[in-house]
Amino acid sequence: xxxxxxxxxPLDRAAANLADYPAVRQSFTWASARGLLRGLPGGGLNxxxxxxxxHATGERxxxxxxRCLGPDGVTELTYGDLLRRTNRFANLLDQLGVGRGxxxxxxxxxxxxxxxxxxxxxxxxxxxxPLFSAFGPEPIRERLARGDGMVLVTTPELxxxxxxxxxxxxxxxxxxxxxxxxxxxxxxSSLNAGLRTVEDRFEVPPTEPGxxxxxxxxxxxxxxxxxxxxxxxxxxxxxxTAAYALDLRAGDVFWCTADPGWVTGTxxxxxxxxxxxxxxxxxxxxxxxxxxxxxxxxxxxxxxYTAPTALRMLMRHGAALPAGYDxxxxxxxxxxxEPLNPEAVVWGQAALGHPVxxxxxxxxxxxxxxxxxxxxxxxxGSMGLPMPGVEVALLARGEDGRAEVxxxxxxxxxxxxxxxxxxxxxxxxxxxxxxxLHANARYAKCFAGDWYLTGDLARRDADGYHWxxxxxxxxxxxxxxxxxxxxxxxxxxxxxxxxEAGVIGKPDRVxxxxxxxxxxxxxxxxxxxxxxxxxxxxxxxxxxxxxxxxIAFDNHLPHTRSGKVMRRLLKxxxxxxxxxxLSTLENAR
Amino acid sequence: xxxxxxxxxxxxxxxxxAPDADLxxxxxxxxxxxxxxxxxxxxxxxxxxxxxxxxxxxDEEDYPRLATITSATTFLSDRAAVR
Lengths: 589, 83
Description:
The complex is a heterodimer of chains A (589) and B (83).
Chain A: H1 10-15, H2 21-27, H3 30-34, H4 47-56, E1 64-70, E2 73-78, H5 79-95, E3 103-107, H6 112-123, E4 127-131, H7 137-146, E5 149-154, H8 156-163, E6 175-178, E7 189-190, H9 191-196, E8 212-218, E9 226-231, H10 234-245, E10 253-256, H11 263-275, E11 279-283, H12 289-298, E12 303-306, H13 308-316, H14 320-323, E13 332-335, H15 342-351, E14 356-360, E15 370-371, E16 385-386, E17 392-395, E18 421-426, H16 440-444, E19 447-448, E20 451-460, E21 466-471, E22 476-478, E23 481-483, H17 485-492, E24 498-508, E25 512-521, H18 529-543, E26 550-553, H19 567-575
Parallel strand pairs in A: 1-11, 3-4, 3-5, 5-6, 6-7, 10-11, 10-12, 12-13, 13-14, 25-26
Antiparallel strand pairs in A: 1-2, 8-9, 14-15, 15-16, 17-18, 18-20, 19-20, 20-21, 22-23, 24-25
Helix pairs in contact in A: 4-5, 4-6, 4-11, 5-6, 10-11
Chain B: H1 3-17, H2 32-36, H3 40-54, H4 69-82
Helix pairs in contact in B: 1-3, 1-4
């Protein structure tokens, strides 16, 4: 049974930034949204300028931009502080010979240095690329190499654990800057020492809206991770979607629990709230139910953007726990990362005083594309309606499950309600990715004419609400992170006992999916518990957070005629589902 | 169950979930999640294994008591005694 619709009141509508969805959807243009930003004094548009300079030189200069909760207490940076610190960082990049468009990576925990690195790089008109600090050495090496990383900012600990072992395979990584005041490890230099040698005055150089600003890595079904390129004008979408979908405004205390190592933590954890002049809460600690409720209460968080996995973990603690915290400051709660189950939406109402507003977007889209909005009724389990300025279609599918594209590049839009199709977006929104770095063919394959093909399957009900159905491909979504099975399989196959591996997402009630690997052993290797643990350990050391949580031995992996492991069949077997069309199989058991 | 058996049971569960970790180096009072690099999902799996093997229900409220080997041993032994 579908859950009951959650009705919004006239009061809800009157209080929302986006009060009249139908009217705005009709009149909205991206050009007018651009007018909400200041733009560079000499023309042009720069993400970092909109996030920092605009407020640091205006009436919000003394407002708190970042409130960072760290192991040693709370550090606050005003917009003015953020300006001076990012000025120094940009000057340091100059001193190191880093140019416009050169890539600066971060591998950092959630703290001030990460924000200074991101915003200093953007204001310098260099390109910022975040790495998730829970990645293992291989995913880190792969992304630095593919992204032409010239500078990496990290901690001495993360450097020793994750970068030093692969540094000799990163010939183009010119500089590694480490945080802290201890002696920098060999091959690195001290970030703080560098910052002390430069001035705290800096002017954002002229920046074209179409210049590359951000590089976000994401995973595909086949092949290596892809670096999605975003440009400076993406900030128009970051800003306006945060106003509409998250109801953000100046003076809000905003907490985005996504790690800034991913796109959500960058678009909405760094950029969007600062363009609005909000105070961003940053917590260096990991999830802990009491700590999280205490954060919401003590810091008077007004807008909270979190993820289904976190909400489901909170739900396990019951509704009595939040009742002990003062959550009256909260005005709006949103979630992204994977489909939010209806129970979690409704639970929000009881436990937090607000239903959870699910939304949908991807690394490639750069910003929220489909959302539940503060002023619109929620159908629990639905990801909502298209953002103003975004045209969404469902496309009829072909035999491989993806949108069917004719030889002339034509697609067929599905109009009948409740029919599953591949979700597609019409080109033209400012935060659309402009390429996969060094992979033009892969980029071209994402489009059919004017449509960007998302790889997600959805249906739309008669009232226009969208419902997520699943991925059209084999990409795994675990705890909100996209994991490419190929990347995991490749690493497992480097283990001396492994001949072949097939990796799938296994359903999990907390994480959505967890990574499960089926491995075929080399002759002579013995399939016992010891080896299973050894393989798990190997995966964890090399892949970190992307490692399989479960390993099964299988000496009869199903293959396609071309010799690829049939992940779809592995999945069907795992679920006990019908195995579908097996005509492309070489050896169906 | 004797404390040393409980200790072994906990370490076995940890080894199954995080076989990459060096349990020999793990101090009895070290924060497990931090020292072994357990993410939230890993931690939940440890809890499930402990619950299955001791036959005791472990509620979310009790998670803080599983923070270290020492506190987990005390907690699980208390549970066994109550029964």
